[in-house]
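Agenda item 2: manganese (II) ion complex prediction
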Amino acid sequence: MGSRKPVIGVPSNVLMDSHGAFPGTERAYVNQDYLDSLALAGAIPVVLPMVSEPEDLQAQLALVDGLMFSGGVDLDPLFYGEEPVPGLGDTYPDMDRHQLPLARMARAAGLPTLGICRGMQILNVAAGGTLHQALERAPEPYLRHVQTGWRHAVSHTVDLVEGTRLRRIFDRASVGVNSFHHQAVKALAPGFQVSARARDGVIEGIETLDGGFHLGVQWHPEGMVRKYPDMLRLFRELVEACIAKGGNPA
Ligand code: MN
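Presented output:
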């Protein structure tokens, strides 16, 4: 890789234009704040559009030194062996068909990977875990995980589990986070550990046990970095993991 900045691939989301000049138009997009956070941390972000053929997925992976899965719509529960329940939001299964194999291939190749919100859920489901489809409909009493108002505002506390990479990244026992999710990790995938929890027990951070950088958080650090610069540490760690690895062997 030499001295160039690491290239971080960000799989695109689907935006359906429901009104405006071109209703029904489908667009590939990534929220700018993810790309800004990666750039601020010293990476060159590139958006990866949806593909599904294995050789195309492999070709996308070969372009990048690391991956970042962003937030977005709900995962299709059929991919983790569940039927949809009331409360499940919009799903775009083609996105899952792109991102789930990409996450598996990245893990197998040891490619540094950060998952944010839906992105963390992708890492878990790709490795065999399941999700709560709709926290707000669950029988257990949960805290509010869909805040309103400012995107950057701290909404609830997460406790960071001792001995985890996430705890080392923030170097403290708990951190205040924003919260914009109504799904959450239910069954943790084999080979992962929980690295953060909200005070209601909801899983807010996961990482693999093998020491590689394959880590997810349920909150939105990209929305907080301006007001809470500590949140940039997550993106810096991803960039540093790419540099330490010396780039993509593919
Ligand atoms: Mn939350």
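Discussion summary: Helices lie at 32-40, 54-62, 93-109, 118-126, 165-170, 232-245.
Owner for follow-up: CH.
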